[in-house]
Amino acid sequence: MSSIKVECVIKEKNEVGESPVWEEKDSSLLYVDITGQKVSRWSSLTKQIESMNTEKLVGCVVPRQAGGYVIAEGTRFAFVDWVKRSITAVAEVNEKPNTRFNDGKVDPAGRFFAGTMSMDMKPDVVDAALYNLQPDHSVVRHFDQVHLSNGLDWSLDHRVFYYIDSLVFMVEAFDYDIQTGGLSNRRTVYKMEKDEGIPDGMCIDTEGKLWVACFNGGRVLRIDPQTGKRLQTVKLPAERITSCCFGGKDYSDLYITSAYIGMDAEALAKQPEAGCTFKRMSLDLWGKLEHPAETTGNTGRTCKLHTEMPTDPAGA
């Protein structure tokens, strides 16, 4: 590996920065501030930030094939018209009280997967679930009994779905059917070690290795999902690391978001860059372009159809 350099590239702080996505067409980084209730775009060319407020706590954002973006906010999916700065509700999920959407990502077929979390964030509360928004705006619930749905991605051959439920402190895998979006054969890929913190967002590189952000761990781990071994650790100057994605001209830069939520004045004084967004440069590894969400039909339609996708989440 060549020399490593970590730089704070977005100094504007987010209380809970999350869901970074590189937009190749204009060399910008898209991301959210969950509790700040906003979606932002940072231009790597001009260093300027554009933001718009959301109506609810916004867990994640992804580009939309038809233009604009799709967000998962509160307990609904919604379209964002960036030009008009408008939000149109698309589908509401029947969640239990005190839950909200958290992290999400688009599969290679254009399905927008996003999971929910309990606002209580207690180990014995499993009120959340994993959903996806279909291209026709219907919603599929894949499984429930989730604590805090978080990072997700797919293997390079699209046959494996990687998933994080943060409060079980592991990275898991499912067999994935790209034709149907079905999940089966749930198993453990990596168990977090005591000093590594809480697994949060993640992404995958072109060698098929996972990069996992560690909340309260101040690091990003590179993991081999085939062997379950940690290959590399990237230390950051902030403890609450939330997510990561590849970007830059050739996708060789790793962008890393962080949070400052819950930190007191003393902790913030020790970590002045908490809540900033970092870039790890000079990687000899590359990421890949994220898929946009494929959505069709009338953007003003609100769909409340919920179907159960045939799954085998327990691997039985």
Describe the structure.
- With 316 residues, the chain is mostly beta strands.
- The protein contains one helix and 25 strands.
- The strands form six sheets. It has a five-stranded mixed β-sheet with strand order 10-11-12-13-25, with no helix packed on it. A four-stranded antiparallel β-sheet has the order 1-24-23-22, with no helix packed on it. A four-stranded antiparallel β-sheet has the order 2-3-4-5, with no helix packed on it.
- The chain is globular.
- The chain starts with a strand and ends in an 8-residue tail after the last strand.
Characteristic key phrases:
single chain, 316 residues, mainly beta, five-stranded mixed sheet, four-stranded antiparallel sheet, 51% strand, globular, disordered C terminus, Regucalcin isoform X1
What topology emerges from the helices and strands here?
Blueprint: E1 5-10, E2 17-23, E3 28-33, E4 38-43, E5 49-53, E6 58-63, E7 69-73, E8 76-81, E9 86-92, E10 99-106, E11 112-118, E12 128-133, E13 139-146, E14 149-154, E15 160-165, E16 170-177, E17 182-191, E18 198-204, E19 210-215, E20 219-224, E21 229-235, E22 241-247, E23 253-258, H1 265-270, E24 277-281, E25 306-308
Parallel strand pairs: 13-25
Antiparallel strand pairs: 1-24, 2-3, 3-4, 4-5, 6-7, 7-8, 8-9, 10-11, 11-12, 12-13, 14-15, 15-16, 16-17, 18-19, 19-20, 20-21, 22-23, 23-24
